[in-house]
């Protein structure tokens, strides 16, 4: 069932969630690491130093443009931790270990949220729209968010299917390239497909994401 009223015609999950900015921020430091590591003939220290420098420059630029300090600093801290892991083990591929673990944790979190009927896509969009948990009282929205959230589970699964073998066999350069390919392009596909699933899952007469039908319902 198509639901043309599921939001303004110019609105999408990408516009609501700002997926492009986060994806770009997650792409630059790994690419910087991979390129510096390769150009320095396999120096993990050089790769980490360049990745941290790139992340710090990106953080400064984001702060200068008014981004929230907390989100910017979390991204920088993640790159620093990834770098410390790689320096500790001496293995360039371990720079990507934190990203592999975070994708695994995200896959489990999103899947569990769907099973317990608290789909994370609904939680995130509800916060962005200032609805808190009002959407939880709309069975149609809960169902639609649940179906669309499976697309996000698939996104994390695709990354793990690519990242884990590359990490296991020590292909650090390939991991850097895969990180770039499976960040913004994959996020863009995920946003578009989950938006389509979300709209198709709502009844034709539903007022849309911004207007949950909040009549009391049985749990």
TrEMBL record:
Coiled coil: none annotated. Keywords: Membrane, Transmembrane, Transmembrane helix. It holds the Pfam family DUF3159. InterPro entries: UCP010219. Signal peptide: none annotated. The chain crosses the membrane at residues 35-59, 71-88, 108-129, 150-170, 176-198. This is DNA internalization-related competence protein ComEC/Rec2.
